[in-house]
Amino acid sequence: MALSSGNDATTLRSWNFLNDYNNKYERDLVRLAESVYMVLCLLVGSPPTQQECYDFYWDVLRRTPFFRDWVANKKHIKPIFYDAFAQMLSRYALDMNWSSISSMQYP
């Protein structure tokens, strides 16, 4: 199930987040998503759905130093919009990488 919409990709592209994602941050975003996935596996006792993973992942992402530095470097984005970009990036990263994230060995 796709979490992101065409609007997410359009917005992320217009703010140059997709270029940054592809050239610099994809590995960090996927590793963080994998960590969230594994924690949820342990907490819930079974693999989470993509939606369940997203519900925690975006909140974890917005608190990471690499995300805060990344979005702060976008000088025209006001801090009030940081959460919205964390949500869009989380949906996008999960959609692009869900098959590898969800195929991780359940502990």
Describe this structure as you would to a colleague.
- This protein has helices spanning 6-14, 17-44, 50-61, 65-72, 82-102.
- The two termini are 24 Å apart.
- Helix 2 (17-44) crosses helix 5 and helix 3 (50-61) packs across helix 5 (82-102).
- The mean pLDDT is 94.
- The longest helix has 28 residues, at 17-44.
- It has one domain (6-102).
- 73% of the residues lie in helices and 0% in strands.
- The chain is an all-alpha fold.
- It contains 5 helices and no strands.
Secondary structure: elements and pairs:
Layout: H1 6-14, H2 17-44, H3 50-61, H4 65-72, H5 82-102
Helix pairs in contact: 2-3, 2-5, 3-5
Fill in the keyword field for this structure.
107 residues, mainly alpha, 5 helices
In short:
The protein is mainly α and 107 residues long. It has five helices and no strands. The chain has one domain.
Basic shape: globular
**Estimated structural class:** mainly alpha
Fraction of residues in H or I helices: over 70%
Number of domains: 1
Unreliable stretches? none
Largest sheet: none
